[in-house]
Amino acid sequence: MGKDLTIKGGEFLLKKTEANSIFIPEEFDEEQLMIAQTCDDFLEAEIFPILDRIDSQEEGLMRSVVEKAGELGLLGVSIPEEYDGFGQSFVTSMLASERMGAGNSFAVAFSAHTGIGSLPIAYYGNHEQKQKYLTKLATGEWAGAYCLTEPGAGSDANSGKTKAVLSEDGKHYIMNGQKMWITNGGFADVQTVFAKIDNDRVYSAFIVEKNWDGIVLNPEEKKMGIKGSSTRQIFYNDVKVPIENLLGKRGEGFRIALNILHMGRIKLGGNVLGAAKRAISQAINYANERKQFGTLIANFGSIKHKIAEQAIRTFTTECAVYRVSKDIDNAIEINKAEEGCDYGRAVMGAFGEYGAEAAIMKVFGSETLDYVVDEMVQIMGGMGFSAEMPADKAYRDSRINRIFEGTNEVNRLIITDTIIKRGQKNHIPLFEKAKEIIAGLDNLTDTFETKGYYEDKLVFVENFKNIAMMLMEAAVNKFDRKLMQEQEVQNSISDILMNVYVAESTMLRVQKAEATQSEEMIKIYKDMLDVYIFETASLINKHALDAIYSIDDDELSDKLVKGTQIYTKVSGVNVKDARRRIADKLIEENKYCF
Amino acid sequence: MKILICLSNVPDTTTKAKFVNDNTAFDTTGVQWIINPWDELALTRAIELKSDAANSIDNITVITVGGKDAEPTMRKALAIGADDAVRVDAEPKDAYYVAAQIAEYLKSNPFDLIFSGIESADYNGSAVGGMIAEFLNIPSISAVSKMNIENGQVNITREIDGGTEDVTSELPVVSIVQKGIAKEPMIAAMRGIMMARKKPLNVVAPVEIEALTEIVNFELPQAKPACKMIEPENVKELVSLLQNEAKVI
Q: CA of A35 to nearest chain B CA: how many angstroms apart?
């Protein structure tokens, strides 16, 4: 699968990507923008006025608003048309996720329903299963949930104990076990439940209906944030699951779970964008109204710094999120064209291909949103700390993003591990290139000469890539298979990989946007790129040195340090003025406007 | 029965207006365009009326006088629920010009019920609906806040100073609507959005008509002066400021 991809998963490290080959948000077409507007209108009319009621878990309220989204067709964006959905591209479904992401607790219910709640059936279900369940999920007649985590099996998801044993008459699996942290658990009619058949080591997946005998729900969990989202523990006591409700093949459950999580991770990258943009707009609104020392606080440099930095992190996240989303769409199309590849496998193959990028977006996106809401509280000062103001909800609701869909700790390990494995399995010629880079360190000299705006940026980004690759080679060389036990080293390399991917995506977006955006806007885009690259160079330098001294390879350390110092050298940027220009534009527009 | 909605393509109401060419033209750079909010309410009411089979409404058409750049806004109307759209291919010069173009279209394409928003959110002229009726010599009713169809005529409630007035009218009629005609504008559903590209959007050539007015100059309202705070015990100072500075008492 995926032989003819323009760019393979993890290949961004090795390949110079042309700006024209990536998708940028400036290219959304009229129909996509209309769908986005529908999401905005829906939140404005149905969700924002009742956020507090949703958070108090008023009986039946969340279920009813999910249903209303269904009436508008918003639950069926990515469901194939033959199952009452709209068969839209992944990019379009990401755009819908982004816009709905501004909806606090509702966003979580929506995301769980349309993503992990519906898509396992969409991608792995047979025709009868899709006919029976997917059509109802697409319209909102039924709600969906995904039941993987258990009290003893969180990050180590496959260690769960839920069992399914074939009944004597061979017509049912008898399911016993316990699942927890189940989003939409309180009202979902259909659950995808992962359980082990007999003494299998790996999961199988089952479609389970809430009303079957033996299913018991614990009361709602009391949570720090997303309080309106239903989160339950579910017990399965001798639940009779008809054998036709086995989803996919026996033993395929863990693969399904992982692939669905890849998808969920990228989706999370989209969700946080919507939340971040709304938080930034609300923070700017406040800064544009609050006066201290006789002037609006928006006029202070410290506040401008915060506003600009919120926007830079959101903008750069967005560049990478939509770049990989389009790469996924392309991969789906290529996979679909291959003989014998059904729709579900084509889609799952594409998500699997970009597993590292998915993990990058999950970690980078969730940390972006946490930064944005933290500074939102700070910009609002005392009012930010008041539970009467939106910062309170935004701050509490953001925190879960670093935990669910695989913790950021697990995802940081996935980033490095996935790319290293793709290199070792020769999907990408990572280690050949890495060895070349290390061999070239002896003669490496600092010969940078400025050649032009994008030419220079390209050099910086390629240099950052060199650091990532030489460190992966050094780490594998030193620790080999024991690298998994050196999580701190992996974390440092993952942080570099994330920043490389985001920096390159931002550079490519700005370059491509020149063709359609006004000169004024491109100037601000360039300011954001300048500040980001400048800051990233220092960050990469720090992470690289952390990794080098932790790898502690007597022969290599000095060379690697030298390489790091040269490869992280970038042109100086007046970050103060650049941030002020960015902030001034946002303050003038009184909202997030990029 | 056929309904025609006159639809203006206007800048989003949160747009910060800027002017170019020596303050003689509106700067459209970066502006997001929307359906004029009053026209959107008219469309919503028309769709509500159509959904009641007793009203026997066969078709809702939207018409816009504008360039190709107005088409996304028109397709939005199709996504919300209009059946087809007509674009008179000309820049809208003034209310008279727009009304004359729409009236000309109506002469060869008769409709029973013509809706127009009470004003447009950009130039707020409040003139097009009445002018169309005048061109066609048919009744127009303004400030309409409620409307129903019964026995081939319309029953209308309109806002008047201090109260409301109920009127009926034979068809055809131009109904100039204001807030209240529909509760909230309808949200375009996914199905509507998908269908919009398949619905007809016909472009017709304009007739030659001279605009009667010309924009000479735009001016932004003066920025609000800083707010002066007066301590509660200084009532005398407050009175003096209101008399001498603000000159309001």
A: 7
